[in-house]
Amino acid sequence: MSKKDEKEKAIALTGDSEASSPPDGAKKEENGSGGSILLFFIVGFIASLIVGWIVFPKLLYSQKKQPIDFNHALHVETVDEGCQSCHFFRDDGSFSGVPKLTQCTGCHEEAQGEDPEETKLVEEYVAKGREVPWLVYSRQPNCVFFSHAAHVKMAKMECVTCHGPIGESSHARIYEENRITGISRDIWGKNIAGLKRNSWDRMKMDECAECHASEAIKTEVSIETPMLGFFNNIIRLAFPGTEKPGRKNSVQTQHEACFVCHK
Amino acid sequence: MKNDQAKKYGMVIDLDKCTGCGACMVACMAENNIPFKEDESNKLDSITWMRVYQLTNGKPYPETDICYIPRPCMHCEGDHGHSPCVSVCPATATDYSQKTGIVSQIYTRCFGCRYCMAACPYHARYFNWWDPVWPNGMEKFLNPSVSPRMRGVVEKCSFCFHRHQLAMNKAFVEGRRELEENEYQTSCAQACPSGAIAFGDLNNPKHTVNQLAQPDNAHGGQPKNPEVFRLLEKLGTNPKVYYVSSREWVRRAGDNYLKNENPGKAH
To answer: What is the ipTM of this complex?
Structure first.
C-alpha cells in the first residue's frame, strides 16, 4: 500500500509543479525526474530489503529433518541422571555431545512403545547396528577447538548458557544448513538483524568473546574485541606501568594465544 | 593455571641415535593432515613440518661421516617471546604463548603474505600453493583434531598442540590442571624407533629434556651440557629444539661458522 501511496504522491507533486510554473520548462523537467528518482529509490530499497531479509536466507539455508524426531522432554522424564545419562564425559576427557548408538541400545534393544519414531530407531538403526546420522545444530567450523571439559568441569558453566533449554523440547527442530559453508544456521543465529535476546541464540566467536573479554577471566583466556582493544591501548599509553600482571600470556595479543580455541 | 609455573615445551634430539629413517616425517604427515601431491620430489612446494636433512663432513673415504638432522619448528622464544616469525606477522596469525612456549599458527587468520617464511632462519614454515587434494576416501581418515589448511596460508609444526588440548581435557575431567610428562608427547617423538627424540617441559627438572639439555634460562636458554647445541645459536633466536651430538664437526655445522670465524666470540 505504501508503495502505491508514494506513487500517487509523486504524481501529485509533478502535476503540482506543472500547474504552478508553466513557463519554466527546464524547471518542470527537473522536478519530474526528481520525483521518479525518489520513486525508483524507494521501490528498489524495499525490493532489496525483501531480497536480503526474506529471499536470500531462504535460498542460503537448506531445510533438513533429523533422521528421528527426538523427544528430549520425554527422555529427561524417564532416565535417572538427567542430561548426564546420555551426555557425559568419557574417561579420555572427550564429551558425549552426540551419544553413540550403544547409548540408545541400552534401553531400546527392542521397542518399548508404539511410537513410530521409536520403531524407526529400532528397525533402521539398532537392528542393523548403524549409527544414527544426527544433524548437529551446534557443530562448529573446522578451525574451532572447543573443550567441554574446560567449560563444564573447570569453569562450572551450565549447559543452558550455550545450548538453551533443549532438554524441554518434545520435537526435533528443522535443521537449517548453510549451503555454502555446510554449517548449521544455529551458529550464525536466526535473527537476520543480528539481534539476540538469549545467550544461546547464536554460537559465533562473538559469543565466546562475550565471556572471554570480561574482567572476570581476563587472566585466563581472553579475547580482546576491537573496541576494548582501543580503550586498553589508550589506557596503556596514558598510564604506562599500570598494566595488570598475569595478562601477558602471549606476545601478539597480550592475552592468551589464539591457539587455545583455534586449531 | 593462574599463577603456576609457566611451561616451556621443547625437544631434545640425539643426532648420534638418529638413523635418518624418516619415521618422524611420516608420523608427522599422518598426524597433522599434511597435504601431499602425487609428485613430492619438488621440494620447493612440498610440505614437511618435520624434515630430515643430511649433513656430511666432506672428508674423503676413511674419515667420511654423515649425520641426519631432523628439523621441526624450533618454536623460538627469541627475546621474551619475540621470535622472528611472530615479530613480523601483520595479521596476528602467529603468536608466542608464554604459558606453553609454543609458537602457534592460526590458519584462518593468516592471509598468506609469507613474511614469516622470510623471517624464519630454519625454513620451518611452508606455504600452501594449492588446496589439499586427498586420494579417494582418505578424507575419512584425516585427524579430526587438526584442521586441514586451505590454499594461500602458511603452516608449520605445532609441537602437536592438539595433543596438549586433548591431554588437558582428560586432566580437567580428572580435576587436574597439570600434565604428566608422558601425557603430552609429539607424534614424531613417539614414532622415533631409536628413541632419538625427547619431548617435554624444559622448565621442569623432572623432565628428560631438561636433564639432557640443561637449559640456562638466565642466558637465553643456552645449554649447559657441552654436547648439546642449537641450530644457528648466534642469531639469538633462542630456539627450543636442542640437538645432542658427541661429534665436534656436527656441533660446529649446527651453527654454521665461516672458516676464519671464532665460534667462542660469536655473540
So the answer is: 0.82
